[in-house]
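Take a look at the protein record below with the fold in mind.
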Amino acid sequence: MHETSRLLEAAAALSQRLHSAGVPHAFYGSVLNAVLSNAPQADEIYCIVEGGGSHPFKRVRQACTGTTDLTTTPSPWSNRLHATYHGRIPPIDIEILPAGEEGPRRLDGSTVVLIGGIPFLTISEFLRAKLKAWAIRQLDHDAQDIIYALTRYWDRVDINRIPEQDMRELIAHYPAASPPWKELRRKYSSRS
């Protein structure tokens, strides 16, 4: 577990570098639920980055060049890149994920929201990304993040962005997700 404020400090530093380099990006992970609930701790933070004309990892490495506060480390065995913020001890590690592979392909006003000046995935995109992660890994903390966000923000969710089969499977394992999912489905069925 990390202090949420430290994660946000690291996210702000990385975001500033990426923004200055013109790299579309957004953060997600349990840090979003921590921000929304004012929780003092969170256990994960990811940064989704668009590729544009080159690979997202190359864009992040270039954006972080020339700063001592941020370094990047590739993980060739897992095809991942980690950006490490050294402004605090211990340093904060942020995993970089390619847009489209994790999260939406395009990071724009329809998929990203600014919270405290830091770009995060919208609730719909957060739920979609977390649901995809849960379907693959089946980790309890992913399910709990989904349940928290869905329970509190179901009325802000675009149901068209949520894979229904994955949600049905999640509900089979975690019945607490059923009531807000039913409310969301009712909201959309009343629009027909």
